[in-house]
Amino acid sequence: MKPSIPKGTRDFSPQEMVKRNYIFDIIRKVYQLHGYQPIETPAMENSETLMGKYGEEGDRLIFKILNSGAYLDGLPQDKTDSNLQLTTYDLRLLTKHISEKALRYDLTVPFARYVVQHRNDITFPFKRYQIQPVWRADRPQKGRYREFYQCDADVIGSDSLLNEVELIQIIDEVFTKLGVPVIIKLNNRKILQGIAEYIGAPDRMIDIATAIDKLDKIGIDGVKKELIDKGFSNEQTEKLNVFVFLGKNKTPNFHNSKYPELDMLHHSDYLASEICTKGVRELKSILDRIDYNSCPNTKIQFDPALARGLNYYTGSIIEVKADPSKSIFTGSICGGGRYDDLTGIFGLPDVSGVGISFGADRIYDVIEELKLFPENLSASTKVLLINFGEEEAQHCLKVLRDLHTSGISAELYPDAKKLNKQFEYADKRNIPYVVLIGQSEIEKGIVKIRNMHSKEEKELLPAQLIEYFKSI
Amino acid sequence: MKPSIPKGTRDFSPQEMVKRNYIFDIIRKVYQLHGYQPIETPAMENSETLMGKYGEEGDRLIFKILNSGAYLDGLPQDKTDSNLQLTTYDLRLLTKHISEKALRYDLTVPFARYVVQHRNDITFPFKRYQIQPVWRADRPQKGRYREFYQCDADVIGSDSLLNEVELIQIIDEVFTKLGVPVIIKLNNRKILQGIAEYIGAPDRMIDIATAIDKLDKIGIDGVKKELIDKGFSNEQTEKLNVFVFLGKNKTPNFHNSKYPELDMLHHSDYLASEICTKGVRELKSILDRIDYNSCPNTKIQFDPALARGLNYYTGSIIEVKADPSKSIFTGSICGGGRYDDLTGIFGLPDVSGVGISFGADRIYDVIEELKLFPENLSASTKVLLINFGEEEAQHCLKVLRDLHTSGISAELYPDAKKLNKQFEYADKRNIPYVVLIGQSEIEKGIVKIRNMHSKEEKELLPAQLIEYFKSI
Asked: Is B262 contained in some domain?
């Protein structure tokens, strides 16, 4: 039997762990700097907490946990009368009966559940961050996994647009620290709604937005065709031509407080409807507050074709991509938005929230592609003490303890193997320094240090050892 | 619908997170100091990787994941012919068919699977640590959860007893850093085997060990009765009387290199059998290497009644408990042992390993009981900037960015609420300092700082702000 792991899941080696923790630590540090507090929720939630929150597709992609014990007992009688065939059994009903728990699908719904459940212990506005894995039964493919980490920050209990401004600053700070040049795309669901109204199909905003979202891929004609196939008229789709203009002019960024496209759209009758005006005003007041000079590596764009999270976002929509002029990576590496009534589903209505989520795995891929991981990242030990045998090893244990007490990571090779074997171990583990304390060193009262990189060796007094390793 | 989480699982609030991370960070730091490298494995493993590795009970307690899609399709024909009733369906067989993945039950088996799967990329001896949650469908009760973290360190590929010595040092260092006084109990499976042979029932070591393990609870007579019920003779059980002596004399610790009980046992015919002699020699060579003076808060005991992990441990057995003279907490808070053939089950035989596992949740309870958490542990922000309205807020955003650039955690209250509301927020969040920049401050070109604890207020020049917060 050749051991393996479920498809879409991964083991992480020490080398990968160090790189992943480098990313997590930066995100965590920036979150904390901005006053976000950590929480964690269980991997498994009650099914009713998750089911129906992510649309039909989501329900299918949620991993369900089989009840323990005799999970078939007490099946509804009418379903268990004789000449019933298992394969003809109503699957939805059976699943409901044999599985009452499911694995976390994202961090947003569990967070909403957390807020409602602990509402009395929480000080609002509540700024929390959460870095945990989530699970989705998606078809695995490059860059898409069945287990992956999300790094979320949300503010709940405040509808101030300053929260959006802060989240955009957080995004900029994280990617600046990581050295990744990015484009932050902004939109507002109300603007999408305005477009739908302008086209004369206010109740079909999602159809329209979903089509427009593909503008970059399929072009304006593709968008029109898709909508006509969905029953829109030529007259309606013609009104979308303005997006060609926008498509062309998306690249210039708001590196000042003037937003030509936005003003153009706004002052045309195009986005003049009441709801849309509100969306434009929200967007502008966010853009007005951003200190563009302080984020030189980050482009900030208004993209009226940006449509994501339309099932729950009600205001701002945020999406971050690696700068295409620097990276071939096209996927979204961070996203977020505002939801006016997330906790309503759990019985706490009218609490506005806004949040973002970093996709650590995709960010990892981009950093690898751009070779931006610091070279000194290492999971390794600094010092290996060579094992020359019983007596010498006993002698080394004291040295080892002194090194540890001084905070220097060190290990004693556990077996008295041939010297070259032990050197080989140090090399493969990228341990930079080896300390040799054999009989002759013990008699001379010295210790020998070998630099595994330069192969140089030098002799020191035991008392000098700590200082030496602290100094390098 | 009142939101809730599955029984046996927990949410962790910011306050709890900070305390938990305090424990994890200490364990992680000590592991790294000793040259252990981090890895992570997926939450879900293929069922065949886990099933049958933890005994029958374990198999029942493993959380199984329902296959996605039409999981009933392709059920063995003979089982799906008509007039079959679901409730009469062979449960084991059905489960095997509808569930091919399961949640990690511990970190040891996934680690063994990892080692075999990645054997060609691993440098042996391989010292790894792993801090991840595990899941067990146990009946929840105080201190026992269905989702809990394990913090494991294992060395694989070396049978040197120096590894045991290092792990005992790690245990001492972790609990010393945490301030928790502990007793480390040591035994060796070979000694238990020797007892079984001495009693004349070499093939019933596990029955005997399991009974002796209860000595503290049920006394020597209880132990004898249990064994007699299991078919042992009076003559055999009489031979266990020596444990009464040991029970009485367990408290004196090895704070020197003399081990009276061990020697007594050894030089009596009691533990003189070949296997037992080997066990005693292993134990002594571990005890001989420990630097007792350097671990004053840790008692180290030989406990021949200690029996745990008998399904896989083949040599050393380690168990750690809070010192009963200081804590009422009786459960084991750390444990481990040596297994000579862990990876054999996955096709890589004759690789010896030894490891330990810290029970973070129980350690948390002990630290709470003994009030040992540092008082300055806080998930909070250092500075809150008061929001006096549009214009002032805009002014504060720059100050905020300067604070963040200097690494000072700070936040701007998002809404221009009444001052007392914002003070109340700072109080509840335990934010020690509040900065007030209102119209008058802006005009005067100053900033006002309020110490939320002493209620003192002082005025500074904006330029002095950073230095001030860095200095305190």
From this structure: yes
Using an 8 Å Cβ cutoff, are A11 and B110 in contact? Answer: no
In this complex, do B72 and A63 lie within 8 Å of one another by their Cβ atoms?
no
Burial code (b: 16+ CB inside 10 Å, e: under 16) for A446-461 equals bbbbbebeeeeeeeee
Looking at residue A80, its pLDDT comes to 47
Regarding whether A292 and A204 lie in a shared domain, the answer is yes
Residue B435 near residue B390 (C-beta atoms within 8 A): no
Where does a domain end: B370, B393, B420? B370
Is A462 found in the same domain as A366?
no
Residue of B51, B85, B159, B351 to mutate for A, most A C-beta atoms under 10 A: B85
Please name the residue of chain B whose CA is at the shortest distance from the CA of residue A109: B3
Mean pLDDT of B183-192: 93
Q: Which residue of chain B comes nearest to A59, CA vs CA?
A: B68
Select from B39, B393, B429 the Cβ nearest to the Cβ of A17. B39
Q: What is the pLDDT of residue A356?
A: 98
**Residue A87 domain flag:** no
- Count of other CB atoms within 10 angstroms of residue A51: 17
CB contact under 8 A, A158 and B99: no
Domain that holds residue B418: 383-471
Distance CA A413, CA B370 (A): 37
The tally of domains found in chain A comes to 2
pLDDT at B120: 95
Distance of residue A328 Cα from the nearest chain B Cα, in angstroms: 29
Do residues B343 and B408 share a domain?
no
The CATH code of the domain that includes A424 is: 3.40.50.800
Strand partners, A366: none
What tens digit of pLDDT does each residue of A23-72 get?
Answer: 999 999 999 999 999 999 999 999 999 999 988 889 999 999 999 888 88
Q: pLDDT tens-digit profile of A87-110?
A: 455 778 888 889 999 999 999 999
Beta-carbon contacts of residue B333 (< 8 Å; ≥ 6 apart): B180, B182, B320, B321, B322, B358, B359, B362, B363, B366
pLDDT bracket for residue B273 (50, 70, 90)? confident
Mean pLDDT for the stretch of residues B44-53:
95
A136 falls in which pLDDT band (50, 70, 90)? Answer: very high
What are the chain B neighbours of A429 within 8 Å (beta carbons)?
Answer: 123
Q: How confident is the model at residue B94 (pLDDT cuts 50, 70, 90)?
A: confident
B357 and B286 in a common domain: yes
Q: How many CA atoms lie within 13 A of A298 on its CB side?
A: 24
Residue in chain A lying closest to B295 (CA): A401
Inspect the interface and report whether the beta carbons of B14 and A98 lie closer than 8 Å.
no
Q: Is residue B334 part of a domain?
A: yes
Mean pLDDT of all residues belonging to chain B: 89
Q: How many CB atoms lie within 10 A of CB B291?
A: 13
Task: Judge if A284 and A221 occupy the same domain.
Answer: yes
**Helix ranges (DSSP H) in B63-104:** 77-80, 91-98
From A57's Cα to the closest Cα of chain B, the distance in A is 11
Query: Is the pLDDT score of B123 beyond 60?
Result: yes
- Interface confidence, given as ipTM, is 0.92
Same domain, A288 and A426: no
Give the DSSP letter of residue B387.
-
For A63, the closest of B39, B65, B82 (CB atoms) is B65
Mutate to test the interface with B, among A81, A87, A171 (most CBs of B within 10 A): A87
Q: Are residues B148 and B207 in the same domain?
A: yes
Q: Verify cis geometry, omega within 30 degrees of 0, for the bond prior to A140.
A: no
CB A186 within 8 Å of CB A302: yes
Q: How far is CA A40 from CA A115, A128, A313, B12, in A?
A: 12, 10, 23, 5
pLDDT of residue A141: 87
**Cβ contact, residue pair B85, A87, below 8 Å:** no
pLDDT of residue B2: 86
Residues B234 and B361 in one domain: yes
